[in-house]
Write a structure and sequence with these properties.
The chain has 557 residues and is of the alpha/beta class. The chain has 3 domains: 303 residues; 40 residues, no CATH class; 173 residues, IlvD/EDD C-terminal domain-like (Glucose Oxidase, domain 1, 3-Layer(bba) Sandwich). 38% of the residues lie in helices and 13% in strands. It has an 8-stranded mixed beta sheet. A 4-stranded parallel beta sheet has the order 2-1-3-4, with helices on both faces. Strands 5-6 form a two-stranded antiparallel ribbon. Strand 10, helix 19 and strand 11 form a beta-alpha-beta unit. Helix 5 runs parallel beside helix 6, helix 7 runs antiparallel to helix 8 and helix 12 crosses helix 14. It is globular and about 75 Å long.
Length: 557
């Protein structure tokens, strides 16, 4: 049966069937069979602060589903903490977990013939994984973000997870003492919630508001605040209404609504990972979308929000300043949003934004008015050239210069690159090349937060380039280019770079170029041999065999 061709509800499907006996064992009564079954996909986990605060939200959703006349049925989905696995072999499982989560949602919803699903997630891959599963199953659905973390505080300054990573480089460079380093590490994360800047978790959750698949205003709430639980309950009520009205994800996830989501990502200075994840979400929802569409949106949408990692403020500051609805209303007023897109509430996006002020409050400087943006164009640039024939992604905000040409410093794993930075073997003007870290080569396309943060911590963020066929954390910033495609494992030009080759990164010209003659590249290509896979069994081996290129979302389809 096609995912979007469900002709029966669960109650119809089991009418007068022996399967009913299984439901009676769960406490069903006769009248319960006439109520819609609503799945609650719960990402609660005590392994990470991002997900450790999800259970109260799941509880609130369960009670709200009952109040609204549905039968809530909870099932679990896993998570891998990017912040905790970063810089380790475990980071290779992060992107894999996106696929596992998507499979869990699709399998349970379809296998148990659910009438709707509410997905609750915290850490980075919970969002795209849940949305991919939602798009595949195509039953009425809503996404509930677990909420952001509150900032840590030390000496009157806000801290966050990236502060701890950057402190490693600063300590090794002698810029802070051991006592200062320990204090940062102990105070950066004050409680539950996902990483607090406009990193991947907050980027994806904020974009889901613009997409129409989450309630407006919900993505910048702190996990520990009561309003987050109230929002989870309201989300359940809205979902029951969508079930009864037959509003399905593919009615909402369209080319126009995806453009809204990407416009929001650009306006808020969001994570490079949004590129990878929306390519995958669009493929799951059968929406036509490509790397060129990101560049098209980037050219017309300015950066309006001064948010970390390259700016000043955190997600909770954005919330106090009016949140995602305020940003969307500014974009709508400037003609940069498709206001007639349907949302999960059954109202259009323009209708949902009707009561939001046209302009941001002058009492804050987190959100800029349209005539005074931080940057006139978006920050996620698509680069091409002989080093990235199928594209690469660069984040170009927060930099004094957007071009560099320098000698290649070549590394085939993250740890040796980090060691070179911390031992002062990387100099201003160098271009670091981290390769065999793509979807197949990593495998799993790990994030390079440790080396990118070490460069910042040592004061090299503006003067050293770093390119990789892997990914970057949403907390990364600097002269960074990721998602280089074709990847090294597939014989991409990045595999042919030699120590000392001159490389040009030029965001203005959208260029990523290896300055070596075609004749020399041909000679190197003839000598190149594909390395043996790093894993032969288990989920990493499966992912390496099935994953598509980063330019198509690295989806296992």
């Amino acid at each position: 049966m096609a995912a979007n061709d469900r002709s029966k509800t669960i109650t119809q499907g089991i009418e007068r069937s022996p399967n009913r006996a299984m439901y009676y064992a769960l406490g069903y009564r006769e009248e319960d069979f006439s109520r819609p079954m609503i799945g609650i996909a719960n990402g609660h986990s005590t392994i990470t602060p991002c997900n450790a605060g999800l259970q109260p939200l799941a509880n609130a959703a369960v009670e709200a589903v009952r109040e609204a006349g549905g039968n809530p049925q909870t099932f679990g989905v896993p998570t891998i903490s990017d912040g905790m696995s970063m810089g380790t072999e475990g980071m290779k499982y992060s992107l894999v977990s996106r696929e596992v989560i998507a499979d869990c949602v699709e399998t349970t919803v379809q296998g148990q013939w659910m009438d709707g699903v509410l997905v609750i997630g915290g850490c980075d891959k919970n969002k795209p994984g849940g949305m991919i599963g939602i798009a595949r199953a195509n039953v009425p659905a809503i996404y509930v973000y677990g909420g952001t973390i509150l900032p840590g505080r030390l000496n009157g300054k806000d801290l966050n997870l990236v502060s701890a990573f950057e402190a490693v480089g600063a300590f090794k460079a002698g810029r802070i003492t051991r006592e200062e380093f320990d204090a940062i590490e102990r105070n950066a994360i004050p409680g539950t919630g996902a990483c607090g800047g406009m990193y991947t978790a907050n980027t994806m959750s904020a974009s889901f508001e613009a997409l129409g698949m989450s309630l407006l205003g919900s993505s910048t709430m702190a996990n520990v605040h009561k309003e987050k639980r109230h929002s989870a309950a309201r989300s359940a009520h809205v979902l029951l209404d969508a079930v009864r009205a037959g509003r399905r994800p593919r009615d909402i996830i369209t080319r126009q609504s995806v453009e809204n989501a990407i416009a929001l990502v650009m306006a808020t200075g969001g994570s490079t990972n949004a590129v990878l994840h929306y390519l995958a979400i669009c493929r799951a929802a059968e929406v036509e979308w490509s790397l060129d569409d990101f560049e098209r949106v980037r050219r017309k949408v300015p950066v309006l929000c001064d948010l970390k990692p390259s700016g000043q403020y955190m997600a909770v500051d954005l919330h106090r300043a009016g949140g995602v609805p305020q940003v969307l209303k500014i974009l709508l007023g400037a003609g940069l949003l498709n206001g007639d897109c349907l949302t999960i509430t059954g109202r259009t996006l323009a209708q949902e934004l009707a009561e939001v002020p046209e302009r941001p409050s002058e009492a804050q400087d987190v959100i800029r008015p349209i005539e005074r943006p931080l940057y006139a164009q978006g920050h996620l640039a698509i680069l091409r050239g002989n080093l990235a024939e199928d594209g690469a992604v660069a984040k170009i905000t927060g930099l004094k210069s957007t071009s560099i040409t320098g000698p290649a410093r070549v590394f085939e794993d993250e740890q040796s690159a980090l060691g070179a930075i911390l031992s002062d073997r990387i100099r201003p003007g160098d271009v670091m090349v981290l390769r065999y870290l793509g979807p197949k080569g990593g495998p799993g396309m790990p994030e390079m937060l440790a080396p990118s943060s070490a460069l910042i911590g040592r004061g090299l963020g503006e003067t050293v380039g770093l390119i990789t066929d892997g990914r970057f954390s949403g907390g990364s910033w600097g002269f960074l280019v990721g998602h280089v495609t074709p990847e090294a494992f597939e014989g991409g030009t990045i595999a042919l770079v030699e120590e000392g080759d001159m490389i040009t990164i030029d965001a203005n010209r959208h260029l990523l170029q290896l300055n070596v003659s075609e004749e020399e590249l041909a000679r190197r290509r003839a000598d190149w041999c594909q390395p043996k896979p790093r894993y032969h069994t288990g989920v990493l081996a499966k992912f390496a065999k099935l994953a598509g290129p980063a330019s198509q979302g690295a989806l296992t389809e």
